[in-house]
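NADH dehydrogenase [ubiquinone] 1 alpha subcomplex subunit
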Amino acid sequence: MVSLHRTIRNIRRVGLREWWRQMQYIGDAKSGVLVGTDQFGNRYFENMNGEEEIPGRQRWVDYAQHEYHASQVPPEWHSWIHHIRKDPPTHDPVVKNLTPPWQTPWVENLTGTRGAFKTYNTVAPKINAWEPKTISRGA
């Protein structure tokens, strides 16, 4: 829902360079308040002005990597983006005290990349392929 007035307003707020980057990555011009940053370098924004943003689309993420996908968003930020939690993880005391010491750090899903998990077999095969044995003819 891009109008000329909204586009010009957002160019003035975020600057021409950031506006062009947003148009290339998310396909929309948005301006809002930086709420926080996660361990991957992703930046999270919010604009609660009802006249500027469509309800339900006032929170968004600016990915740090060029090749981005949804598994690069940690669970605590995912719950904030999808309006499951009201406060962002940087301000929510429950989320700050929720992480147990034994929990491993969040990593993105590596399926389809070189870092993906691949199984290998350590057992001898039960069925062996046929290998023809040839004997040379005597002359």
